[in-house]
């Protein structure tokens, strides 16, 4: 494969961002789980809840620190690797990142120290407040990051300034209350909650299977499955909301995810499975569910959803319109920013399509000299590669429904079967631990790969966004990141496993009251009462 | 929105230039001692318990302190996008080195004492040394390069192009003046770390910190003086060819920049700025002096004052320049042509006015809760929960 600066930069960003997001979802969810547990402790004053808080808090800490460490890379690599992007949209994109620091990350990072070091220095109420502030801080972090990302998906509240050669903010309100951003925020944090719920459930199930720390495990499962069920429902519902938002903001992404090559009469059918073929522009062996797509995408039976072929035609028209804007822009720049009223009018009428003219830069230095053939090629470039999106999306959605089923089952056993869990279910809960991470990474893949060929949808092509770096620069840092991050990952996993095996520092046995209340249900067929006594460490 | 026109574009740019200074100084004053403690760690603390004592003096606070750095990055992105785009891509390999070192640090703090093996712990101690010393050095080197001028130019589309081979993005930065600046930065933060340990540690760790600190402080002051002389006689400054437009759209290429004899001409034009280098010298030397005595708090406060003076002196000397170009003076970034738009600067100012006082308030509360020395007995008693 030929090494290409844009491809290497994308690879590095994808790698560092997806690595960062191995730690973020657990931080988002586990901070809340820990805060819930500590709140129960403060309200009931039962020592086991304090022990649970400390135990899950330790695992939270091991995970949290790598989220922080890899987040440092995220904050700076837009400037390092995407310097033209940073110049071009920094006026809008930078603001939510900075506010994230001011409002959220500062709070989270300042109080997380007290969470670990403040047990003897704070009153119980003060400490639980600190814990909640950490949880709220990390969730607000996600809000501002998703506002920034939402703007890349659906750029609102900004316009191009021909003198400063960049996008500039026209409405902060529109940027913050961007519907794409809001749907993505709730979807993403819910995914984090599901991740934490599955993690807590799985680790607790492992303790139950080994008959260790049963009192802790049982209560943790109770918290995890209630929290997890609500979150798993929310993640699917809000994922649907994201899809609905994409119907009017990112039509091409939606069409690619669905493998919808041509506009169908409304309501469109949903392709459940099939093999999308980019060249033939059709999906082989497709299994269609009638009406479904129209209902999901438009929530109506009459509205049409455009297919890929029609969107390519639309892109071609926008490229031609963009060329008029480009021509006006060149004249404005030649006059050092002085513009006649006619020129201003010409530019403003077409400036919304300027980004489409930039798509031609891949083929010709001056887009105005592009041939019809090159314009056709550039229009075709607006279609992201369909099959990875098609499959990644279906796998993610499948996992989402699996989490609902899993959580619902444990919720049922916890509430109506006296907290007795069959061993096969416990084993499944252990094995499914990696699944939410896979779903979360697939989700980001769909969101970001589906936006290609743009970094900012319809505004700035990815190929133009990169820094002026050499292949050697990229190879050094790419190899460096892969090696460094791999070592850190091995170390982190090693410590995580060590501390899970070790279990809580001090074991608190099940209370007699609880045992008496549940005894009739806990008695197994051989008459023993399992898990009441905990083996000595 | 009309509200943002309450403050003129020109005034907002100056405010954001000041706030950039506040963030960088905030980072140096707080995370600076974390970096210093990391760099001092293998020398100031010898036994495992001593090292844990030193690490735990910063244990609960380094995470919050580091946000000054993250926020600095975010604020540069939001308020000075061209600076963010040009500097981090131009210093590409140096930035990568800083990032790697800064990533080692959180992991080192958190994971070091999670396994009992001496090899494991010793390895992380040196990781913490690298995580402290390397950023402290490179930040100074970067400031040195900014004073000398960075070899970049802007294309007509405002794409930043760094001139020179790829390895220049690391080795090209290591010119003699910038290395001196790097050394001053490292020495200054080493003394800052020592001053922190004098306040927060006891026993041998405190004693060694009090011995080593003044040495670093005196050398830092000498290096700072040498850099001042070098600037006076060996390095050209930059200036606008004619009075700049201060409230126009941000496009650095629209103004003409010329080289001047020296940056220090600024002191003739604005004599009052001499107070910054005086505070720098005074603070650093007083910190060295008080470290020799028995005062707990004084060395840290003097050191903070010194660092404040040194960083302010760079900003005030260069104003209105923020990133001059050594190969194409017209590409230089200044306060008047490298900011965000009027509206964005206003929105960011409102956010800062709301949140910075809150941040200062809860950060102070956290320091107040943690007030007092970290002793070795305390570490031994809470061996499981502390770092």
Explained architecture:
The complex is a heterodimer of chains A (537) and B (387). Chain A has 537 residues and is mostly helical. Helices cover 71% and strands 5% of the residues of chain A. Chain A is built from 19 helices and six strands. Chain A has a two-stranded antiparallel sheet with strand order 1-2. Chain B has 387 residues and is mainly α. The relative contact order of chain B is 0.15. Classes of the chains: A mainly alpha (537), B mainly alpha (387). Chains A and B meet through helix 2, helix 3, strand 2 and helix 18 of A and helix 3, helix 4, helix 5, strand 2 and helix 12 of B.
Distance between the termini of chain A: 55 Å
Q: Helix/strand-derived class of chain A?
A: mainly alpha
Q: Say how many strands of chain B there are.
A: 6
- Average pLDDT of chain B works out at 93
What percent of the residues of chain A sit in helical stretches (DSSP H or I)?
A: over 70%
Termini Cα gap of chain B = 50 Å
List the total number of helices of chain A: 19
Poorly predicted tracts of residues of chain A: 530-537
Q: Could you give the order of strands across the largest sheet of chain A?
A: 1-2
Low-confidence stretches of chain B: none
Average pLDDT of chain A, rounded to a whole number, is 88
Order of helices and strands of chain A: HHHHEEHHHHEEHHHHHHHHEEHHH
Overall 3D form of chain A: globular
What's the total count of β strands of chain A? 6
Taking the sheet with the most strands of chain B, its summary is: 2 strands, antiparallel
């Amino acid at each position: 494969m030929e090494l290409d600066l844009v491809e290497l930069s994308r690879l590095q960003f994808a790698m560092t961002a997806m690595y960062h997001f191995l730690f973020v979802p657990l931080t988002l969810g586990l901070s809340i789980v820990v805060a819930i547990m500590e709140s129960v402790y403060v309200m009931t004053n039962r020592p086991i809840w304090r022990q649970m808080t400390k135990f899950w808090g330790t695992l939270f800490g091991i995970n949290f620190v790598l989220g922080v460490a890899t987040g440092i890379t995220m904050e700076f690599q837009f400037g390092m690797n995407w310097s033209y992007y940073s110049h071009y949209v920094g006026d809008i994109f930078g603001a939510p990142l900075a506010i994230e620091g001011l409002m959220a990350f500062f709070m989270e990072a300042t109080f997380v120290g007290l969470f670990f070091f403040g047990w003897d220095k704070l009153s119980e109420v003060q400490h639980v407040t600190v814990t909640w502030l950490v949880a709220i801080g990390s969730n607000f972090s996600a809000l501002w990051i998703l506002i920034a990302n939402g703007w890349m998906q659906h750029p609102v509240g900004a316009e191009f300034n021909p003198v400063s050669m960049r996008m500039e903010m026209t409405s902060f309100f529109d940027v913050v209350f961007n519907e794409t951003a809001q749907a993505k925020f709730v979807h993403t944090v819910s995914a984090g909650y599901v991740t934490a719920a599955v993690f807590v459930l799985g680790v607790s199930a492992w303790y139950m299977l080994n008959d260790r720390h049963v009192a802790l495990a049982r209560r943790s499962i109770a918290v995890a499955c209630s929290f997890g069920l609500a979150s798993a429902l929310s993640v699917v519902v809000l994922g649907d909301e994201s899809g609905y938002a994409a119907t009017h903001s990112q039509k091409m992404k939606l069409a690619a995810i669905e493998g919808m090559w041509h506009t169908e009469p409304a309501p469109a059918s949903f392709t459940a499975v099939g093999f999308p073929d980019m060249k033939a522009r059709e999906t082989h062996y497709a299994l269609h569910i009638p009406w479904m797509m129209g209902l999901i995408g438009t929530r109506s039976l009459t509205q049409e959803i455009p297919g890929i072929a029609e969107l390519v035609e639309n892109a071609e028209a926008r490229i031609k319109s963009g060329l008029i804007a480009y021509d006006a822009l060149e004249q404005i720049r030649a006059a050092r920013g002085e513009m006649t009223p006619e020129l201003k009018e010409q530019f403003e009428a077409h400036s919304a399509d300027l980004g489409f003219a930039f798509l031609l830069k891949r083929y010709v230095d001056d887009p105005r000299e592009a041939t019809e053939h090159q314009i056709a090629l550039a229009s075709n470039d607006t279609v992201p590669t369909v099959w990875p999106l098609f499959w990644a999306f279906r796998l993610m959605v499948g996992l989402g429904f699996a989490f609902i089923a899993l959580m619902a089952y444990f919720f049922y056993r916890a509430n109506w079967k006296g907290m007795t869990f069959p061993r096969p279910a416990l084993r499944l809960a252990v094995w499914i631990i990696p699944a939410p991470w896979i779903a979360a990474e697939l989700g980001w893949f769909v969101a970001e790969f589906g936006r290609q060929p743009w970094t900012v949808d319809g505004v700035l092509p990815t190929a133009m966004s990169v820094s002026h770096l050499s292949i050697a620069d990229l190879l050094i840092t790419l190899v460096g990141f892969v090696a460094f991050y791999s070592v850190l990952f091995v170390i982190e996993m090693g410590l995580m496993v060590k501390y899970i095996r070790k279990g809580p520092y001090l074991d608190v046995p099940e209370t007699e009251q609880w045992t008496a209340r549940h005894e009739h249900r806990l008695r197994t067929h051989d008459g023993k009462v399992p898990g009441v006594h905990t083996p000595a460490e | 929105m009309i509200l943002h026109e309450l403050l003129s574009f020109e005034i907002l740019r100056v405010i954001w230039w000041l706030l950039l200074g506040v963030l960088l100084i905030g980072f140096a004053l707080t995370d600076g001692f974390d970096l210093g403690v990391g760099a001092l760690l293998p020398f100031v603390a010898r036994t495992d318990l001593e090292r844990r004592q030193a690490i735990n003096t910063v244990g609960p606070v380094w995470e919050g302190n580091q946000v000054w750095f993250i926020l600095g990055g975010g604020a540069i992105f939001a308020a000075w996008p061209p600076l963010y785009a040009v500097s981090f891509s131009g210093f590409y390999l140096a930035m990568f080195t800083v990032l790697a070192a800064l990533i080692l640090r959180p992991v080192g703090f958190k994971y070091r004492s999670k396994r009992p093996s001496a090899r494991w712990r010793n390895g992380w101690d040196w990781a913490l040394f690298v995580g402290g010393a390397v950023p402290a050095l490179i930040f100074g080197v970067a400031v040195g390069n900014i004073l000398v001028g960075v070899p970049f130019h802007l294309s007509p589309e405002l794409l930043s192009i760094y001139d020179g081979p790829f390895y220049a993005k690391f080795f090209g930065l290591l010119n003699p003046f910038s290395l001196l600046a790097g050394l001053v930065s490292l020495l200054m933060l080493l003394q800052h770390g020592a001053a922190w340990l004098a306040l927060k540690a006891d026993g041998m760790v405190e004693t060694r910190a009090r011995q080593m600190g003044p040495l670093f402080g005196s050398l830092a002051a000498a290096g700072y003086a040498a850099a001042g002389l070098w600037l006076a006689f060996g390095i050209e400054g930059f200036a606008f060819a004619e009075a700049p437009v201060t409230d126009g759209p941000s496009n650095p290429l629209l103004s003409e920049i010329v080289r001047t004899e020296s940056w220090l001409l600024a002191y003739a034009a604005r004599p009052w700025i001499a107070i910054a280098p005086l505070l720098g010298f005074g603070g650093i030397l007083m910190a060295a002096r008080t470290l020799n005595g028995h005062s707990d708090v004084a060395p840290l406060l003097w050191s903070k004052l010194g660092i404040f003076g040194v960083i302010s002196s760079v900003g005030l000397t260069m104003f209105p320049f923020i990133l001059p170009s050594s190969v194409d003076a017209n590409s230089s970034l200044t306060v008047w042509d490298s900011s965000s738009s009027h509206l964005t600067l206003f929105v960011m100012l409102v956010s800062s006015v709301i949140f910075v006082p809150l941040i200062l308030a809860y950060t102070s509360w956290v320091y107040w809760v943690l007030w007092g020395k970290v002793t070795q007995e305390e570490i031994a008693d809470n061996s499981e929960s502390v770092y």
